Fold this sequence. Notes:
The complex is a heterodimer.
Chain A: H1 8-21, E1 25-28, E2 43-46, E3 53-57, E4 62-66, H2 71-80, E5 83-84, H3 98-104, H4 111-114, E6 121-128, E7 133-137, H5 149-153, E8 161-169, E9 171-172, E10 176-183, H6 186-197, E11 203-209, E12 212-219, H7 221-231, E13 234-235, H8 239-248, E14 260-264, E15 277-281, E16 286-290, H9 295-304, E17 308-313, H10 327-340
Parallel strand pairs in A: 1-2
Antiparallel strand pairs in A: 3-4, 4-8, 5-9, 6-7, 6-8, 10-12, 10-13, 11-12, 14-16, 14-17, 15-16
Chain B: H1 5-18, E1 24-25, H2 28-31, E2 48-50, H3 55-68, E3 72-75, E4 92-95, E5 102-106, E6 111-114, H4 120-127, E7 132-133, H5 146-152, H6 159-162, H7 165-168, E8 169-175, E9 181-185, H8 196-200, E10 209-216, E11 218-219, E12 223-231, H9 234-246, E13 253-258, H10 259-269, E14 279-287, H11 289-305, E15 310-313, H12 316-328, H13 330-337, E16 340-343, H14 353-367, E17 371-375, E18 384-388, H15 395-412, H16 431-434, H17 437-450, H18 465-474
Parallel strand pairs in B: 2-4, 3-4
Antiparallel strand pairs in B: 1-2, 5-6, 6-10, 7-11, 8-9, 8-10, 12-14, 12-15, 13-14, 13-17, 16-18, 17-18
Helix pairs in contact in B: 1-3, 9-14, 10-12, 10-13, 14-15
The complex binds flavin-adenine dinucleotide (FAD).
Amino acid sequence: MTPDTDISAALQANLLEAIAQGSPVQIVSGGSKTFYGRAPQGEPLSVTGHRGVISYEPTELVITARAGTRLADVEALLAEHNQMLPFEPPHFTGNATLGGAIATGLSGPRRPYAGSARDFVLGIKVLTGKGEILSFGGQVMKNVAGFDVSRFMAGSLGTLGILLEISLKVLPRPESEQTLLFECSALEAIQRMNAWAGQPLPLSGAVFDGGRLYLRLSGSTAALNAAREKLGGELFADGPAFWRDARDHTCTFFQGDAPLWRVSVPAATPPLDLPGEWLIDWGGAQRWLKTSCAPATIRELTAKAGGHATLFRGGDRQGAVFHPLPPALMALHRRLKAAFDPHGILNLGRMYSDL
Amino acid sequence: MKTLASDTQALITALHRILPSSAVLSDAEDLRPYECDGLSAYRELPLAVCLPETVEQVRAVLRVCHDMNVPVVARGAGTGLSGGALPLANGVVLSLAKFMRILEVDPANRIARVQPGVRNLAISQAAAPYGLYYAPDPSSQIACTIGGNVAENSGGVHCLKYGLTVHNVLGLKVLTMDGELLEIGGAALDAPGYDLLALMTGSEGLLGVIVEVTVKLLPKPERAQVVLAAFDDVVKAGEAVGSIIGAGIVPGGLEMMDNLAIRAAEDFIHAGYPVDAAAILLCEVDGANEEVSDQILKVREILKQAGATEVRTARGEAERLKFWAGRKAAFPAVGRISPDYYCMDGTIPRKRLSEVLSRIAELSKEYGLPVANVFHAGDGNLHPLILYDANKPGELERTEEFGGKILDLCVAVGGTITGEHGVGMEKIGQMCHQFAPAELTQFHAVKHAFDPQGLLNPGKAVPTLHRCAEFGAMHVHGGKLSHPELERF
Ligand SMILES: Cc1cc2nc3c(=O)[nH]c(=O)nc-3n(C[C@H](O)[C@H](O)[C@H](O)COP(=O)(O)OP(=O)(O)OC[C@H]3O[C@@H](n4cnc5c(N)ncnc54)[C@H](O)[C@@H]3O)c2cc1C
């Protein structure tokens, strides 16, 4: 573990200087998700020095840490107390930070069953584009005082403010986990995943890759055995490694240079008629597509299915990486950006070209 | 902003032009039912009440008000407990009560698309044939609307495990004050751009009018089992809560009631509660059959070790529902034993529970006003009910002062002034304690991005800095003025 340091004063001074100079900054952290979003621009401002767990009380189910704290360090500490970050954030190459996890708002395979990164945010301290350090939310489970700015920050890709501290709800680790394996087609897999998700079963992951449906169960041993009776399938021994690889994009599917799309659709949507290779995660709600198909085609079909598509990796990083918004929503985004970053200084163009 | 009689007449004429005549109320006696929400100590008559039936009509009402610079207060069932739906004397109340249709239940995707005036419980009833339900269950669920739930980010006894409204809503259709229709989220698990669902949920009618809601449905657990534990001491009950969570158990619900609440509920519902107990805990575990059996054993053991005088597992579904009926009817039950009661809603870190309850008991003696405690112990969300009689001169004022002290106490121990009922009109002063001026200014900037003219529910939820300065001048907190940097007047 790296030593704890609080560099919020220095970050604030740097930002005020950048505001005075009118020179945009890009927030950099562990760099594990540099590939994500549109190409960064502006002077790099590193937050990795701002790290350390500020408080953690297992019986309160709450942890508060500085944004530059490594995700691996946070998870190791939680594991000592048999707890976890329920949204299973991707680490990708391993230097991922807590700030990066919340700023990108990405969640792993447990997401449809446990909740997303933003669902577990309880409070934040943020250095806004005005150069002010503000606190929203808190460390309690329920808090409706004022607009929910903390959850709003999740997934905003550093375009609204520099996250300094984050409080998250954590949960006990399940007593045990098992992975079951089924051979089937993509269509069958989607149907089964959704039929099971509508029943009271202890599901915690459902991925379809290469003709195989992988199903993860979490809970007490007795409950898992009972669920297995009902579900059938074959017990898969290498479960933990499989789910880690699915989370971090380290399995074979994610190798290679073809543009990688993240397709988010209603979970039970039948396979989309788009050329390329698919990996289906989140019980059907998040689908990865490796393809050189034209972005407009992908977006049109995804939108028709009630979803949206992100050019996750590769392809044209100067173009529209995230699904374009209708004009009224885009205008509201611009006004919200201006409300937090009136000088237009933070992570310009990382999300949309005019934000 | 005073509206002249002639302006009022012009407004009403304009509203009649866009709505059927039965959908515009403006006579004092017709307005009376809308003068307050569930917090009846605050009352006001609006200029008019509109009852549109279609999204186009809502849009037309908003456009008229926008053009005439008239404030609008959206209203669901009016069960809110913080004056959120309290009318403004110079404004229009926009009732969504006629939007009662369930548009779609999609069992394959486990979602329901509903109009904003649909009652919370009606969603679960519509989903029941598919073995599904909508998880957040406010005690008011037979009456309150999903639109109101979203606007307040309402919770319920099962939110400890299944989350609040914000965790269970996937999409919204929202009209902004200028009549623009925004589609936020949808049937997928996420949407591109900023998380506007997070901002809208809990926005108390300040950012937009919700005209459609897509909610997540969950499979009904295979089994739910509730344990009732009695304690001879409130502090011991508070500590038992921490022990259950600390043991790695996340109950479906974990609720506490103190003696006054127990007796009131027992008198009303005959739930079989032990009326001599200083406190009871209701701990429900749900999930797979085997898991529930395991956890019930663990919970019983923990409760005994924590010093429970009695630990009773409900025998069968009928008794389980009876245990819960007592809890869910606790507010009206307290209403039967006192002319009036005032419901507080602070949240605190769980570990400070015993200390805060003791302090509330001391304050209760100081003020000579009894307090019944009924609350979501598992997530530290307190509902002290202060019993008073509004007909006794000065008693309401003393009650409000006492309530304010409870909220200050919640903030002082690291908690918040409202866990689920919202700020509304009621806690507007306490917001000045919870947030610094820069944070309040940021809230106003968010509001401005949605509603630049400030016409949606103005004066609620987020105080102006002027208001805080006035409030601070009256209210010296811990020997210090709240905002010494602000000018006093
Ligand atoms: C006996 C009792 C028990 C309760 N128990 C609980 C509980 O367990 N948990 C809990 O969280 N709350 C509880 N409440 C409080 C209340 O029921 C909730 O806040 C509920 O969500 C309010 O819904 P409503 O339809 O009555 O909204 P209203 O009271 O009509 O309105 C509430 C707020 O929402 C806004 N609003 C309403 N509809 C819309 C819309 N379509 N678009 C935009 N804004 C809108 C209003 O402007 C107002 O600010 C309880 C209340 C009572 C009386």
